[in-house]
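Minimal example, chain plus HQG.
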Amino acid sequence: MSKRNDTLTKTSRFISLILRHQPEAIGITLDEHGWADTEQLIKGVSATHPLNRDILEEIVRTDEKQRYSFNEDHTKIRANQGHSIPVDVELKETDPPAVLYHGTGEKYVSSIEKEGLKPQSRLYVHLSADTDTAFKVGRRHGKPVIFMIDAAKMKEDGYPFFLSVNGVWLTKAVPVSYLTRL
Ligand code: HQG
């Protein structure tokens, strides 16, 4: 990775921390829909990371997971999903594909097989429609393990699913009976 990309990635990680978990770390607040004031975000983040309007526009435009959105006139910015703080990012309830996947680490498997998937520190359990994504997510937690979720049955049983604007499938929890370890 080039030095410039490396710097952008570090700044982006910090922005993700601020917009999903800890806005207070730079003394800002999010509104009920998760929006931060763009100027305030730039001011707060740039105290410790290289950031100005142009760099922020580039980060939002080029982020490989499209983690962030601006409002129409770019005066506000929010993370599309992944929050631990209780904000309502106006997720769209959407019928899931018949099967979804969740990647995790081997160390969590015995607990998941007892309790099912829980959102832990986040608001939702994160799922994907493909095993490649699940594998990458799982690898973040050590030796990756993939669970298959019977989303068709969950839907039939009344569990709501949401699709974030950046294509992440979300649901509140997945009971053990809908899980199969691959
Ligand atoms: C596990 C990244 C024990 C769960 C990714 C996961 C994703 C349990 C961990 C997004 C459990 C939580 C989210 C139970 C679930 N007992 N462990 N009952 N139920 N777990 O990071 O899904 O790059 O909060 O399997 O790409 O890994 O940040 O969730 O291993 O989309 O944009 O508890 O974060 O996106 O870990 O990742 P996380 P996740 P970003």
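The chain has two domains: 3-79, 99-181. The first strand starts at residue 36 and ends at 37.
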